[in-house]
């Protein structure tokens, strides 16, 4: 059996992995893994130190801490079971929440499945989605789909981005999905290089590597 390996994405800047439970299993002695508040405070301070050329104004570390706590509490419930990452290139930016998971195959035809997973033919999009093949060194060729849609609550135009692949190895088969959306379309467009790099780090690893955090 194999597992979805997102470990390498944790080494990329400017990405933050959001733990799915507290304290995080196996990290009971790590302060940042004990609670959303501890995790958020540590990362808020680190992000201002690492990604800002200026010092934070009064209250800005606390503001980012509150934003991260909100994401830690809410994001895992949006797509239960998905791994969750935040794209945050500057501590004053609004994070992009990215979800990643390995899915049981529901549609046998690969092309049809990838189009369904990426919403390549979404009838709710305000213009035809931009559908492109996307190559991964670990997952092969999949699809990347960018679409624009109107939010039902605010009527604002949002951007959504999805990546999908069919993974097959011997008797094992599954679909891999990455999804995200944002109320500021330009924010996703500017983040494209980082998101593409992130997507190309995702891989499927054999069970024997499950306990090796830095396995290739």
Short description:
This is DUF695 domain-containing protein. The protein has 216 residues and is α+β, with helices and mostly antiparallel strands. The protein has helices at residues 36-51, 60-78, 110-118, 185-201, and strands at residues 2-5, 15-18, 83-87, 96-103, 130-136, 140-150, 157-169, 172-182, 203-206.
Could you explain the architecture of this structure?
The protein has helices at residues 36-51, 60-78, 110-118, 185-201, and strands at 2-5, 15-18, 83-87, 96-103, 130-136, 140-150, 157-169, 172-182, 203-206. The chain contains 4 helices and 9 strands; from the N terminus they run ββααββαββββαβ. The chain has a 7-stranded antiparallel sheet with strand order 2-3-4-8-7-6-5. The chain has 216 residues and is of the alpha+beta class. The chain has one domain. It comes from Streptomyces ochraceiscleroticus. This is DUF695 domain-containing protein.
- The helix tally amounts to 4
Classification by helices and strands: alpha+beta
The tally of domains stands at 1
Largest pleated sheet: 7 strands, antiparallel
Protein name: DUF695 domain-containing protein
Organism: Streptomyces ochraceiscleroticus
Write the layout of secondary structure elements.
Layout: E1 2-5, E2 15-18, H1 36-51, H2 60-78, E3 83-87, E4 96-103, H3 110-118, E5 130-136, E6 140-150, E7 157-169, E8 172-182, H4 185-201, E9 203-206
Antiparallel strand pairs: 1-9, 2-3, 3-4, 4-8, 5-6, 6-7, 7-8
């Amino acid at each position: 059996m194999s597992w979805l390996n997102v470990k390498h994405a944790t080494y990329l800047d400017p990405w933050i992995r959001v733990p799915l439970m507290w304290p995080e299993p196996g990290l009971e002695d790590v302060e940042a893994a004990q609670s959303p508040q501890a995790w958020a405070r540590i990362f808020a301070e680190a992000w201002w130190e690492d990604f800002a050329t200026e010092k934070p104004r009064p209250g800005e570390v606390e503001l980012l801490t509150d934003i991260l706590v909100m994401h830690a509490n809410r994001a895992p419930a949006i797509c239960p079971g998905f791994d969750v990452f935040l794209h945050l290139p500057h501590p004053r930016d609004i994070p992009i929440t990215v979800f990643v998971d390995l899915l049981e195959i529901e549609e046998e035809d690969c092309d049809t499945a990838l189009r369904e997973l990426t919403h390549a033919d979404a009838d709710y999009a305000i213009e035809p989605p931009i559908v492109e093949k996307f190559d991964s060194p670990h997952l092969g060729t999949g699809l990347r789909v960018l679409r624009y849609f109107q939010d039902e609550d605010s009527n604002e135009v949002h951007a959504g981005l999805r990546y999908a692949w069919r993974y097959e190895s011997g008797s094992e088969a599954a679909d891999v999905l990455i999804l995200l959306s944002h109320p500021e379309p330009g924010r996703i467009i500017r983040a494209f290089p980082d998101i593409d790099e992130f997507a190309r780090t995702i891989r499927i690893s054999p069970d024997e590597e499950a306990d090796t955090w830095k396995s290739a």
